[in-house]
Design goal:
Elements (H helix, E strand, L loop, with lengths): L53 E5 L9 H14 L3 E7 L25 H11 L3 E7 L2 E4 L10 H5 L22 E3 L5 H17 L4 E5 L13 H11 L10 H25 L4 E7 L10 H4 L3 H4 L5 H6 L5 E5 L9 H14 L11 E7 L5 H13 L3 E5 L6 H4 L5 H12 L20 E8 L8 E6 L2 E7 L5 E5 L4 E7 L2 E7 L3 E4 L3 E2 L12
Parallel strand pairs: 1-2, 1-10, 2-3, 3-6, 6-7, 7-8, 8-9, 9-10, 11-17, 11-18
Antiparallel strand pairs: 4-5, 11-14, 12-13, 12-15, 15-16
Helix pairs in contact: 1-2, 4-6, 11-13
């Protein structure tokens, strides 16, 4: 097995990306009753199912999760709709709609005292045959309009007034607000530890079927990452001098690598806690899509170049099990209907090379709140016809009229349900989503003892041959997912360790002590 690498590893091995075939022929017309039979193409087979998930996002920005009565109604409405999976908001902004996590409980006057939304909705949904994925805003830190009042909340301890202990993503001028929101910076090792711990605590303490990573990126604008600690790390690991320009390709590559490293570590730690847990991501699909299989064009999109989200690599390396595209388009807006179908086709085409079992499932996420029910039904039908799963956003705002306060939520749910469950609709015949994630094993470890633990090349070898490479993150953590079972030797900065990878589960290698004679820019073995 070979593993695609972060940009600074490109010189170490060539990466070949082979898209799945995506073109299909139109149906063949009946032959003419007389004369020679023309040569025509055979009818195209229906696309293979990429995912059978049929889901609904349940957010916490209004009613739906805050009382026992609301949760009962939510599950009942979801069952009537026919979905097989609920993506339930759990981690909001450094806090949780739950009571058994590493994070403080959300501050919300409408939350029933003592009530545990995540625990109750998981219990009820499982009783109705639905899976529950705990949805997390990974880098969310705070909203200044509705702050969490816990003295232990991350924004109070590591917010803008914490000096060198601040974990916030910052612009070159030091500012941190995006509207009323604050974001954590994935390139700050302590912040990454915090984000990982919050997600892992959900899997350890609740019988959820997996986690979904939302806001797993930098904020819009392409001008983030300028916390002094982050800049110091970048210089130490790369040998760069001064402050990088916001458009510096090397700087952008490095920050993009920090996001991918966080996804890798979350997946490894979640799988170490429970190998059967699904790791999903809600991913960005801004503007016009690349053509199917065109990764070079993807690297010119805002998804890759602005918010620094390289989700094709996450899919191909087994870092996520399910990619749910936030394909929020309005068919009524010129070009957006084609954009919608194009992003679905691109995601399906870059799952993995043919025969590679690491390819993630893909579902198209549609914006119920931006469209009337007829458009939602049409988008869902096109998504499912392409072999993808489908997820709607959201339970609370199921139609454009509900979002515009011209219709109640029950009225909107009834209107969209009538079309989605009609004969030929995306939810006309839904079975439970019973697939198991393809990524079920791996290894993880850490290098210690050096002032520059990040950006070091780590090689996995079998029989003396390199089978995968990666880089350490800012805390010295490294890992590989879905290596074949059996003995694997890891080499990093002159240190090595061998241990068998299990059939199922994640093995944790002991810390490797690295003593640099003279600290140098990392990224070199």
């Amino acid at each position: 097995m070979t593993t695609s690498l972060l940009p600074r590893l490109a010189a170490l091995c060539a990466l070949m990306l082979v898209p799945l075939a995506g073109a299909t022929a139109p149906p063949t017309p009946d032959p003419a009753p007389e004369g020679p039979r023309p040569e025509v193409a055979a009818p195209a087979p229906a696309p293979a199912s990429i995912s059978d998930v049929r889901g609904l996002w349940v957010d916490a920005f209004g009613p739906g999760l805050k009382t026992a009565a609301q949760v009962r109604q939510t599950v009942e409405e979801a069952a009537r709709l026919g979905v097989n999976t609920l993506f339930v908001q759990a981690i909001r902004r450094g806090d949780c709609l739950c009571r058994r996590s590493a994070l403080p409980v959300v501050t919300d006057a409408d939350l029933e005292p003592g009530f545990d939304p995540l625990g109750e909705i998981t219990r009820l949904a499982h009783g109705r045959g639905m899976r529950v994925i705990a949805w997390a805003s990974v880098t969310g830190a705070s909203n200044t309009q509705v702050p969490n009042t816990s003295p232990a909340h991350v924004f109070r301890v590591h917010g803008p007034g914490a000096g060198a202990a601040s974990w916030l993503a910052r612009r070159p001028d030091g500012s941190w607000r995006t509207g009323s929101d604050a974001w954590l910076d994935p390139a700050i090792p302590a912040a990454a530890d915090f984000m990982v711990a919050g997600l892992v605590s959900l899997v350890r303490n609740y019988p959820v079927d997996g986690v979904q990573l939302d806001r797993i990126r930098y904020p819009d604008g392409g001008v983030w990452g300028y916390d002094p600690k982050v800049l110091a790390r970048y210089r130490a690991e790369t040998g760069a001098r001064g402050t990088p320009a916001t458009t510096d390709p090397r700087w952008l590559d490095w920050k993009r690598g920090q996001v991918t490293a966080l996804v890798r570590r979350i997946s490894l730690e979640v799988k170490a806690a429970r190998p059967s847990a699904w790791v999903s991501a809600a991913t960005i699909t801004y503007q016009a899509p690349p053509a199917p299989g065109d990764l070079a064009a993807f690297r010119k999109t805002r998804t890759y170049a602005d918010v620094l989200q390289d989700w094709p690599t996450w899919m191909q390396e087994g870092l996520i099990d399910l990619n749910v595209l936030m394909n929020y388009k309005r068919d009524a807006v010129p070009a957006q209907a084609a954009w919608f179908d194009g992003w679905n086709a691109f995601a399906a085409s870059v799952r993995a090379a043919p025969g590679d079992l690491r390819g993630a499932e893909v579902a198209g996420g549609t914006a119920l709140y931006l469209n009337p029910p007829a458009v939602t039904a049409a988008q869902a039908a096109r998504t499912v016809a392409a072999g993808l799963g489908w997820v709607g956003y959201s339970y609370r705002t199921p139609t454009l009229d509900v979002y515009g306060t011209r219709q109640s939520t029950p009225e909107g749910l009834a209107a969209v349900r009538d079309l989605l469950t009609a004969p030929g609709g995306a939810l006309a015949r839904v079975s439970p989503w019973t697939a198991q994630p393809r990524t079920v094993r791996g290894l993880l470890g850490r290098v210690v003892g050096t002032p520059v633990p990040g950006g070091r090349v780590v090689e996995a070898l079998r029989g003396g041959q390199v089978v995968a490479r990666t880089l350490t993150d800012g805390g010295g953590n490294y890992g590989f997912l879905n290596l074949a079972p059996g003995p694997v030797e890891v080499r990093v900065s002159g240190q090595r360790w061998a241990e068998p990878v299990p059939e199922v589960g994640v093995i944790r290698y002991p810390d490797l002590l690295v003593r640099d004679v003279q600290p140098a820019a990392s990224g070199r073995p």
